[in-house]
Amino acid sequence: MTFLNRYRLAVAGGVLTVVGVIYLVLATSYSLGTLDQPGPGLFPVAVGVLLAGTAIGTLLEGIRRPLAEAVPEFDRRSALRTVLVFAVVVGYVLLVGVIGHLLASTIAAAILLKSQGTKWLWTIVVALALGFASQFVFDDILGVPLPTLTFG
């Protein structure tokens, strides 16, 4: 068993920890706002904390794994799903300013749901519900303005 194979969980956790910390540092450049009026940095900072925290947990699990414990084999299907999630997030970021949050989040949710084998009817219903619910929570409840589809 090679070093990388033995410690691949720790290596992945380490790389993601670095990415999470860099993301968190960049996210703190935005204003957090106040409890009454959340700023544009609130959500990115929350995501950065979750990403870094999860990555640190993965790193520690990889380091603490007993030598005798079997290391899970590479699963191509899971890797492709991970790439798809990353592509959907990148696609959302690229499209949200053009087509707005409601449409971009609904499309993103539909792609992710369909990739998990969800039937078309449920994919459409749940994706629409997630799109409208996130729009309502961020825009109406939290007062965080989201990009909208504009014509012209």
Please provide a written account of the structure.
With 152 residues, this protein is mainly α. It has 2 domains: 1-73; 75-146, no CATH class. 71% of the residues lie in helices and 0% in strands. The chain has helices at 3-6, 8-27, 42-64, 76-99, 101-115, 120-141. Helix 4 runs antiparallel to helix 5 and helix 5 packs antiparallel against helix 6. The longest helix is centred in the middle third of the chain and has 24 residues, at 76-99. It starts with a helix and ends in an 11-residue tail after the last helix. The mean pLDDT is 82.
How many β-strand runs?
0
Question: How many separate helices?
Answer: 6
Give the count of structural domains.
2
The string of secondary-structure elements, in order, is: HHHHHH
Rg? 19 Å
Largest sheet: none
